[in-house]
């Protein structure tokens, strides 16, 4: 959390401010905005849109997971709350610590060995709960899963040391009910990426539903807009607060939350931590993908860019804090119940940890079925809202910059949007096979982490260096109020680029082969495919640099670069420039002036009356 908060101040806030300022100045999306301010770096906006396409496929997969959990919540107890299911293995345990503690006699004597056991092994290759058998112990009346209690003689615990070493070792060989539901019911995860297995048809149908809703929403502009967006934004936060209140009452939750805020020198020195913290900053603020450009371009001039920046950063930070406290509090509770260290690799740190952790929270809530249905319903809505936002941003940016081509090839907006949704559906299919979690992690790492960090750095260079952040501020001297000018200029010009370079260089030096749950090493070809995806997205930038230099009419290379860096618009506009201007008035004989496409303000402008428009042709 310390790394995230640090990067939020030195990178996140300056980046979101410069994106909103660029969107406000140009009144355009990411591609057109960067093309107007720095034509040489137009590819940065297009690279962000390309990354958003892969992100859209990942969001669709997360939507399908939420749908699956939602329908499995309609039971007396959620289906991930018990081990009495067909998909559970002998490693599953609802409360293994209580069982093993009883078997070990309560640990009155930490140096005493466990009581003798006689195990009768079933003649099966994969024991499940249906293969459990009686276990003869000195204290009768217990049943445990076969093959799971390791009775290998272990070193005796010295007097005064932790008396649960036997228990910790034994429990580390078990899994939670929520983890088994995620692995064996939702994913039906295969043995490796080389074994993709079958397509999970329930998830495929859910992705189809997600993209159909996306198409209808963007085609008709009826869903996930207006007041609905406010409900979808506020309701999940209220649920998170309720979860946090419940988590705080659980054993070990306080230790988990303290661990989140506690400085750890060893972790702070880990370059990979800073890479993922920077990626989290980018995602939480919606940087690089273009949504900040679009939102800012539609705001009124009276709304300060700095005000929008502060509100966005505050809301996102508060959300991350609440969600983080719920997650780490639950992790602390799980580790306390399973007698594991919080920093141990007991919990799998993969993309599904959020589903596993929140399933465990719901399992401990009163009336868990009610909370499961409510939580996953709103999670579906939030995932759908994110999907619509990222898809609409990309589609609008492409139509804004390549509208003529799209109209010629796709006959307009509807067919082009359908093409995008179908392409996203096809792209998401590998992620919902039995080996799809491996492809998901590969794309998440190489695209959603590495590629977005590089694109964000190039975007900062284009707007903060080549164009100049101070030019954006001077162009909005009548729009932005009380801007911390010195702080922003120092960050744009020095601190933020240096932090990006340090994180990228140090992180690059510590890069290692991609692994799944720190155990399964991916084959070499997976890293090759991942770097190819990374290269396809990032290579858009140098391609458009070469194109811009080729179009420049100057003779020398230095002159070509200077010409390509020249902005295509003047941001030093009067106040009237910032009003919405949907009316185009031609030939105004009443005022004796012929306006060739002179742009006037909308009907909200206070200086015009209805009679002023008599005799005009309005488009």
Automatic annotation (TrEMBL):
<feature type="signal peptide">
    <location>
        <begin position="1"/>
        <end position="23"/>
    </location>
</feature>
<feature type="binding site">
    <location>
        <position position="284"/>
    </location>
    <ligand>
        <name>Na(+)</name>
    </ligand>
</feature>
<feature type="transmembrane region" description="Helical">
    <location>
        <begin position="230"/>
        <end position="250"/>
    </location>
</feature>
<keyword id="KW-1015">Disulfide bond</keyword>
<feature type="transmembrane region" description="Helical">
    <location>
        <begin position="445"/>
        <end position="466"/>
    </location>
</feature>
<dbReference type="GO" id="GO:0015293">
    <property type="term" value="F:symporter activity"/>
</dbReference>
<feature type="binding site">
    <location>
        <position position="386"/>
    </location>
    <ligand>
        <name>Na(+)</name>
    </ligand>
</feature>
<feature type="binding site">
    <location>
        <position position="385"/>
    </location>
    <ligand>
        <name>Na(+)</name>
    </ligand>
</feature>
<dbReference type="GO" id="GO:0046872">
    <property type="term" value="F:metal ion binding"/>
</dbReference>
<dbReference type="InterPro" id="IPR037272">
    <property type="entry name" value="SNS_sf"/>
</dbReference>
<feature type="binding site">
    <location>
        <position position="316"/>
    </location>
    <ligand>
        <name>Na(+)</name>
    </ligand>
</feature>
<keyword id="KW-0812">Transmembrane</keyword>
<feature type="transmembrane region" description="Helical">
    <location>
        <begin position="310"/>
        <end position="331"/>
    </location>
</feature>
<keyword id="KW-0732">Signal</keyword>
<keyword id="KW-0472">Membrane</keyword>
<feature type="disulfide bond">
    <location>
        <begin position="83"/>
        <end position="92"/>
    </location>
</feature>
<feature type="transmembrane region" description="Helical">
    <location>
        <begin position="486"/>
        <end position="512"/>
    </location>
</feature>
<feature type="transmembrane region" description="Helical">
    <location>
        <begin position="271"/>
        <end position="290"/>
    </location>
</feature>
<feature type="transmembrane region" description="Helical">
    <location>
        <begin position="524"/>
        <end position="545"/>
    </location>
</feature>
<feature type="transmembrane region" description="Helical">
    <location>
        <begin position="370"/>
        <end position="390"/>
    </location>
</feature>
<dbReference type="InterPro" id="IPR000175">
    <property type="entry name" value="Na/ntran_symport"/>
</dbReference>
<keyword id="KW-0479">Metal-binding</keyword>
<feature type="transmembrane region" description="Helical">
    <location>
        <begin position="410"/>
        <end position="433"/>
    </location>
</feature>
<keyword id="KW-0813">Transport</keyword>
<keyword id="KW-1133">Transmembrane helix</keyword>
<dbReference type="GO" id="GO:0016020">
    <property type="term" value="C:membrane"/>
</dbReference>
<protein>
    <submittedName>
        <fullName>Putative sodium-and chloride-dependent gaba transporter ine-like isoform x2</fullName>
    </submittedName>
</protein>
<dbReference type="Pfam" id="PF00209">
    <property type="entry name" value="SNF"/>
</dbReference>
<comment type="similarity">
    <text>Belongs to the sodium:neurotransmitter symporter (SNF) (TC 2.A.22) family.</text>
</comment>
<feature type="transmembrane region" description="Helical">
    <location>
        <begin position="45"/>
        <end position="71"/>
    </location>
</feature>
<keyword id="KW-0915">Sodium</keyword>
<keyword id="KW-0769">Symport</keyword>
């Amino acid at each position: 959390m310390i790394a995230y908060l640090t990067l939020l101040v030195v990178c996140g806030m300056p980046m979101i401010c410069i994106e909103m300022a660029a969107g406000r100045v140009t009144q355009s999306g990411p591609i057109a905005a960067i093309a107007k301010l720095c034509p040489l770096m137009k590819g940065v906006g297009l690279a962000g849109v390309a990354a958003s396409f892969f992100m859209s496929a990942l969001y669709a997969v997360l939507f399908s997971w939420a749908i699956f959990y939602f329908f499995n919540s309609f039971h007396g107890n959620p289906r991930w709350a018990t081990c009495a299911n067909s998909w559970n293995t002998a490693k599953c345990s609802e409360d293994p610590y209580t069982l093993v503690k009883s078997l070990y006699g309560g640990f009155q004597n930490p140096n005493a060995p466990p009581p003798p056991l006689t195990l009768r092994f079933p003649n099966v290759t994969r024991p499940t709960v249906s293969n459990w058998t009686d276990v003869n112990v000195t204290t009768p009346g217990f049943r445990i899963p076969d093959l799971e209690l390791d009775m290998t003689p272990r070193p005796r615990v010295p007097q005064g040391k932790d008396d649960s070493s036997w228990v910790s070792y034994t429990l580390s060989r078990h899994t939670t009910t929520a983890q088994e539901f995620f692995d064996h019911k939702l994913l039906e995860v295969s043995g490796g990426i080389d074994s993709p297995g079958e397509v999970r048809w329930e998830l495929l149908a859910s992705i189809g539903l997600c993209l159909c809703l996306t198409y209808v929403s963007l085609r008709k502009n009826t869903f996930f807009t207006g007041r609905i967006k406010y409900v979808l934004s506020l309701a999940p936060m209220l649920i998170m607060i309720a979860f946090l209140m419940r988590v705080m009452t659980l054993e070990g939750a306080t230790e988990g939350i303290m661990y989140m805020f506690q400085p750890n020198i060893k972790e702070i020195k880990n370059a990979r931590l800073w890479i993922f913290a920077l990626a989290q900053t980018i995602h939480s603020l919606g940087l690089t993908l273009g949504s900040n450009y679009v939102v800012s371009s539609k705001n009124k001039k009276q709304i300060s860019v700095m005000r929008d920046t502060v509100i966005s950063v505050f809301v996102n930070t508060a959300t991350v804090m609440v969600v983080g406290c719920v997650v780490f509090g639950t992790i602390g509770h799980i580790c306390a119940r399973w007698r594991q260290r919080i920093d141990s690799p007991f919990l799998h740190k993969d993309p599904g940890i959020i589903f596993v952790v929140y399933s465990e929270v719901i399992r401990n809530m009163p009336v868990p079925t009610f909370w499961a249905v409510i939580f996953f319903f709103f999670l579906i809505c939030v995932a759908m809202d994110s999907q619509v936002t990222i898809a609409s941003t990309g589609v609008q940016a492409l139509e804004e910059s390549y509208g003529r081509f799209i109209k010629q090839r796709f006959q307009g907006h509807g067919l082009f949007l359908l093409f995008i949704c179908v392409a996203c559906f096809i792209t998401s299919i590998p992620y919902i096979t039995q080996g799809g979690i491996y492809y998901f992690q590969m794309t998440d790492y190489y695209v959603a982490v590495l590629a977005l960090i590089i694109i964000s750095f190039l975007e900062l260079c284009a707007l903060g260096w080549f164009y100049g952040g101070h030019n954006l501020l001077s162009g909005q001297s009548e729009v932005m109020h009380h801007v911390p000018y010195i702080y922003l200029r120092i960050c744009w010009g020095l601190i933020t680029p240096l932090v990006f370079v340090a994180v990228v260089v140090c992180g690059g030096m510590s890069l290692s082969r991609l692994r799944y749950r720190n155990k399964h090493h991916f084959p070499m070809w997976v890293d090759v495919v991942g770097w190819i995806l990374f290269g396809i997205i990032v290579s858009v930038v140098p391609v458009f640099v070469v194109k811009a230099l080729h179009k420049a009419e100057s003779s020398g290379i230095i002159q070509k670069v200077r010409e390509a860096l020249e902005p295509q618009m003047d941001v030093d506009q009067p106040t009237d420039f910032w009003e919405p201007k949907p009316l185009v008035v031609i030939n105004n004989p009443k005022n004796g002036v012929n306006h060739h496409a002179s742009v006037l303000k909308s009907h909200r402008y206070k200086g015009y009356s209805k009679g002023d428009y008599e005799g005009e042709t309005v488009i």
